[in-house]
Design goal:
- With about 300 residues, the protein is α/β, with parallel strands linked by helices.
- It folds into 2 domains: about 55-235, 3-Layer(bba) Sandwich (Glucose Oxidase, domain 1), CATH 3.50.30; about 240-305, no CATH class.
- The chain has helices at about 1-25, 30-35, 55-60, 65-75, 110-120, 130-135, 155-165, 180-185, 240-265, 270-275, 280-290, 300-305; strands at about 80-85, 85-90, 95-105, 140-145, 170-175, 175, 190-195, 195, 205-210, 215, 220, 225-230, 230-235.
Length: about 300
């Protein structure tokens, strides 16, 4: 029994040490990234982050948030949308692959260990610059700085310039920024933040880069695809982006056809706004034949996507 207790104590100590070592990690390993995003079967970055294609990102820009939200709910993803943002460049669309960062209130001994580890990895400058150094074209820097207002801004115009230069995009921050006038004057820096404040970050620390973070009701994973417009942001799991895009494109085509027929007076609003009859579906199919190139994939694939629709 005594030996058992010794072994058990040793095992518990080993687990605590291992857990503590992992807890100090700023990033996770490639294998851990793959395990975190197991449903993604496509291309990945060197660190394992899912890499949704540039073509899908470009096509996603035309998909309304309503269509993306509906497609995600249809796949059982009910917590992928957050609203009530301050939008820099309202009216523009933000699309890109999430590079995530988790900020936490300062714990001196934890920050000290994180900075030592970062120095060994060759990171330079203050913590707030480390995620920016990792951005590539098509990324969106998504950070949870827990909504801190005073002494909370994690970027200003200098870091904003670096972000735009590296990623071609703005940011999504559950927190604040400074130099709002300068950021708003930067074309392409479409961003969603909680507000602005003239101070800069203090009593904070960067705990993780490319880890799972929380933005409102959403668990955001590295490689999720951001779709932001006006006051809302959807976070799309990478394995669902193609389905969201194609479903959204079908809805847009059906809306275009339906509104055309309404202007022509061929159908009533009740007919178009309800589930379509076989006659209308046939008319829609013929319209697609008469307008080649509007549908970016086969009719067979369209029919497959339409099978389980609720609209």
């Amino acid at each position: 029994m005594k030996m058992y207790k010794i072994l058990l104590t040793g095992f518990v100590a080993f687990c605590l040490i291992t857990s503590s070592a992992k807890a100090q990690n700023i990033t996770i390993t490639r294998q851990e990234m793959i395990e975190l995003t197991p449903k993604w079967k496509g291309e990945r970055f060197a660190d394992g982050r899912p890499k949704v294609s540039d073509d899908l990102l470009e096509r996603l820009k035309s998909i309304p948030l309503e269509q993306a939200w509906g497609a995600l709910r249809g796949e059982g993803y009910l917590n992928q949308y957050e609203t009530n943002w301050v939008n820099i460049h309202a009216g523009e669309v933000l699309v890109g692959r999430a590079l995530t960062a988790q900020y936490m209130p300062l714990r001196p001994e934890v920050r000290e260990q994180l900075e030592k580890k970062a120095a060994r990895e060759g990171r330079i400058g203050d913590m707030v610059s480390w995620p920016i150094d990792m951005l590539v074209k098509g990324d969106v820097y998504v950070a949870d700085s827990y909504g801190k207002l005073e002494d909370g801004p994690i970027i200003g115009s200098n870091l904003g310039t670096a972000i735009l230069s590296r990623s071609g995009n703005g940011v999504v921050f559950n927190g604040t920024v400074r130099d709002m006038r300068d950021l708003a004057a930067m074309p392409g820096f479409t961003s969603f933040v909680r507000g602005d404040h003239p101070s800069h970050q203090r009593e904070m620390m960067l705990k993780g880069i490319n880890v799972a973070i929380r933005i409102g009701p959403v668990t955001v994973l590295p490689g999720d695809v951001v779709l932001g417009y006006l006051g809302g942001v959807a976070f799309i799991p990478p394995h669902l982006v193609e389905r969201v895009v194609k479903t959204g494109e079908i809805v847009l085509l059906r809306d275009e056809f339906g509104q055309l027929r309404l202007r022509e007076g061929k159908y009533t609003p009740g007919q178009i706004d309800d589930r379509w009859s076989d006659a209308i579906e046939k008319d829609f199919s013929q319209w697609l034949d008469q307008n080649p190139g509007k549908l970016k994939f086969s009719k067979a694939e369209m029919q497959e996507l339409l099978k389980n629709r609720t609209w």
